[in-house]
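Ticket #4471: complex job returned nothing on first submit. Input attached below:
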Amino acid sequence: DSGVTQTPKHLITATGQRVTLRCSPRSGDLSVYWYQQSLDQGLQFLIQYYNGEERAKGNILERFSAQQFPDLHSELNLSSLELGDSALYFCASSVASGGFGNTIYFGEGSWLTVV
Amino acid sequence: KNEVEQSPQNLTAQEGEFITINCSYSVGISALHWLQQHPGGGIVSLFMLSSGKKKHGRLIATINIQEKHSSLHITASHPRDSAVYICAVIRVRDDKIIFGKGTRLHILP
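Support reply: We reran it on our side without changes. The output follows.
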């Protein structure tokens, strides 16, 4: 158990809909990262928050948004869903904001299926 | 060309064999991670390296910063080591994490 909690574990929704994925980081971790893993693209970094502020942005679509709340949990909002958004979405957390000396802990992932 | 390349893509070996998985990268990095993803999908962080070598049980990870190359070794491999092993680097100029495509390892009993 990494200490990172993601909900829901599985989600099936229709095209055009909007969903919210939730992540609770490990206790004491200030950084939250979101990743998307699809069959054809592999793991892709989406976005990172550190202590409530956006820290780094990866290949995140404009239809997607995220935020980190004062209690450090984070939500990833996916809207106008398309079939190609079907993927496993991971959240991870770490103590610091940067890469050096920074172990990253992954959640179990949220499986999103868009039908 | 991908900034992080792993080889081999797939590897099948007999139980007990010594396994090596390689990762080469073309960007400046502040750290490199080796991750293990089991068939159920969950990801476990195995090692975080910025230099030298680390060992944990039967797993050994090395990194050569000058050559921009890292290796993950598994000694006395076991069927429970069957998983996808992913190399990920932290790009120093913007702290972004870049993943390799992964190496699918299958250890036969």
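The interface with chain A takes residues 29-31, 33, 35, 41-45, 48, 50, 86, 88, 90-92, 94-102 of chain B (CB under 8 Å). Closing as resolved unless it happens again.
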